[in-house]
Design a protein that fits this description.
The protein is an alpha+beta fold. The chain has one domain. The protein is 30% helix and 29% strand. The protein is built from four helices and six strands. Strands 1-5-6 form a three-stranded antiparallel β-sheet.
Length: 111
């Protein structure tokens, strides 16, 4: 039997090496396990973040995604670009397009 993934949306931020404050705000301080910085430039090179399955490393160019249940997880740029595209439809418009029974299923999944 063949299956297709349900449509889901994630919020995401790409770690550029310069945006560590935005990354910490996105993930939440409580979800930062630690980080490595370059001893010469003091630039943050890698983060370790708490995920629903333990912890994961985030390097420059990687994305950090927040799923529908609020969990955060790292994703390489290659996998992110193969899996997601920018959703340019405002959420309010998109919600009007979704049938009520599908909205009910989404609500059940979040709980």
């Amino acid at each position: 039997m063949r299956y297709q993934r349900k449509i889901n949306y994630v919020d995401a931020i790409q770690f550029t090496g310069d945006n560590w404050k935005q990354l910490e705000e996105f993930v939440g301080e409580e979800n930062i396990n630690g980080y490595m910085e370059d001893i010469h430039s003091k630039e943050v090179k890698r983060y370790s973040i708490k995920t629903p399955n333990g912890s994961g490393g985030v390097s420059r160019g990687d994305w950090v995604c927040r799923d529908v249940k609020g969990g955060v997880y790292p994703c390489t740029d290659e996998v992110f670009r193969a899996t997601y595209y920018v959703d340019e439809i405002p959420l309010e418009v998109l919600e009007k397009m979704v049938p009520d029974d599908v909205k009910a299923m989404w609500k059940e999944e979040k709980e």
